[in-house]
Amino acid sequence: MDKPNFYIDLEKDFPEFINSLENLGKVAKKTANLDEKTIQLVQLAAACAIGSEGAVHSHTRRALQAGATNNEIIGVCIALVSTIGFPKVAAAISWVRDIIK
Predict the structure, then answer these.
(1) In this structure, what are the phi and psi dihedrals at residue 98, rounded to the nearest 5 degrees?
(2) Distances in Å between the alpha carbon of 30 and those of 16, 33, 85, 89?
(3) Phi and psi (nearest 5°) for 35?
(4) CA–CA distance from 48 to each of 12, 13, 42, 75 (Å)?
(5) Ranges for the Carboxymuconolactone decarboxylase-like domain (predicted)?
């Protein structure tokens, strides 16, 4: 998966920070004891909830790579409507569609 330019810049400027961040992610995934597809769908839901377009794009890509279907990804967004509200869900679905079109 291609890394965004800002991430590449951070890796160059602050390699110890990025290494620590990546290790934290690996340990968290291992500790969660979930399959990769489930982890990516959970992280997608969190990205939708905080309204982060970049994170929704990233976790949509990662969910697809982990075997999630387009309908599962959209379903994750729709399932959040009673928790985060329709405007955030609509925005998240538009960001998901940027990737799955």
Answers:
(1) -55, -35
(2) 21, 5, 31, 29
(3) -70, 160
(4) 29, 29, 10, 12
(5) 15-97
Q: Which residue has the tokens 């925005």?
A: 91
Round to whole Å and give the CA distance between 5 and 98: 19
Q: How many other CB atoms are found less than 10 A from the CB of residue 78? A: 13
Calculate mean pLDDT across residues 6-20.
92
Per the CB < 8 A criterion, the answer to whether 19 and 11 are in contact is no
pLDDT tens column, 62-90: 999 999 999 999 999 999 999 999 999 99
Contact 54, 96 (CB under 8 A): no
End-to-end CA distance of the chain: 18
Backbone φ, ψ for residue 33 (5° rounding): 55, 45
